[in-house]
Amino acid sequence: MKHLFITYSMLMLGAMGSWAQNANDSICVFDGNVTNVPDGTVVYLSLPIPEHKGTYRSDTITMVTGGKFHFEKAIRAGDDCSVAVGRFSSGVRIKLNPGMKTVITGDGMDAAEWIAENEHPDQKEANIYQKYKKEKLADYLALEAQIRAASARMYTAQFDAKNEAEAKVAADEAKRISKQEKELRPKYFNVMSEFLKNRNFSPSYEKELTMIAQNAYYADDEAKMDVCRELFAKVPKDHMSQSIYFLKKYLYPEFKPLKAGDQVKDFTLNDHDGKPHSIMEYAGKGKYLLLESARKACTGSILDRPKEILKEIHKKYADLFDIVTLAISPKAMFDDKEFPREEWVELGLNETSPFDEIMGTYFPREERFIFISPEGKILAKCGSDKLNEEIKKYFPFVEN
Fold first, then answer.
1. pLDDT digits (tens, 9 = 90+) for 318-361
2. What is the pLDDT of residues 170-214, one digit of tens each?
């Protein structure tokens, strides 16, 4: 028995030693050398959340001292990571292998503009893309940096300072800059689509193709969609990812969107109390209907939502029209009694509903409101910024 115990103990020690060696082999080193970043600035290293692809959780923090920072972290094979300044800021995404060293350089507080260099081929490819965009799209990237900064201020005010007024100011600033950025999207599309024609498929190729396909889709530009379809041919047939899911959704839509003049398509969703409601309970019943898609789990969308306008017109004209809000939020949040409820009908549009079919049919692009006639026909669609003027156009009873 004693001999067996010693043998077992030695096997355990050997296994632990092997594990320790493997753990040491997986440790990645990150050395940062940055300028115009004050001492004491907090830098975050974030790792992917396995159960939620495409999302990252802050894992380790350090501080900048004399323009330098340092991380050492065990990284699993197949994982990448992100390094950012501030909890709500965008960062530099890094591809790497266990045990690899990465040198990060940059100027200024926008970590998304920093450069991460290591021996991983995908990271080298990412740096080629970043260098090309800095040469050809400096004006577009400058606006993107301003939007990121405004968005970070918005989330900081919303979640850390609990200051709704400050968050709204930052959200409005991001929205204003986004309008300028939108004017440059055709240039971005032309520059990057030409660049992609001469690149092989890679994670960077996939990311940029998704960006320009989204650009073409929301612009409803079929010629640009055709360009993206040609570029999509480089994607390996067996490759699947979140980006590929969206690419297929943009380029090969499964559902035909409703347009002005079409009869509404029926569907059934549950309210807060779990009671099912059909859209036909409200459409085509002799009253006008305003159908809203509200991303109530997204801070930016909440602040951008013209809720006061909705409350005002609902109170004044409730006998002439109905409002139905499709609340896009996780079911757990929607079922929560603390979830802010509207004064009108609110239905849950989440993982328990035919989400893709409803969004693809009613709200495939950037519209958030649909005006429906008393006969149940689509009159028009618009975004939040146009609601005030459009509602007076399509609901004739609303006073000017």
1. 999 999 999 998 888 888 777 788 899 999 998 889 999 999 99
2. 999 999 999 999 999 999 999 999 999 999 999 999 999 999 999
Query: At residue 164, what is the residue type?
Result: E
The b/e string for 126-156 (b: 16+ C-beta within 10 A; e otherwise) is beebbeebeebbeebbebbbbbbbbbbbbbb
Contact 369, 382 (CB under 8 A): yes
Structure tokens at 190: 């032309």
CA neighbours closer than 13 Å in the CB half-sphere of residue 207: 10
- Angle at which helices 203-218 and 164-196 cross, to 10°: 110
Rounded Cα–Cα distance for residues 213 and 234 (Å) = 14
pLDDT per position as a tens digit, 379-395 = 999 998 889 889 999 99
Instruction: Give the CA dihedral 88, 142, 109, 202, nearest 10 degrees.
Output: 70
What the block records as the tokens of 374 is 């008393």
CA-CA distance, 93 to 73, in Å (whole number)? 15
Question: Which residues, other chains included, contact 94 with Cβ-Cβ below 8 Å and sequence gap of 6+?
Answer: 30, 80, 81, 82, 83, 102, 104, 116, 118, 123
Structure letter (DSSP) for residue 347: E
DSSP 297: T
3-state secondary structure of 336: coil
pLDDT of residue 24: 62
DSSP class of 266: P
pTM, 2 dp: 0.79
Task: Give the Cα-Cα-Cα angle 393, 369, 147 (nearest 5 degrees).
Answer: 110
Entry field: residues in the chain: 400
**Three-class DSSP category at 90:** coil
As given in the structure block, the two tokens for residue 65 are: 């001292």
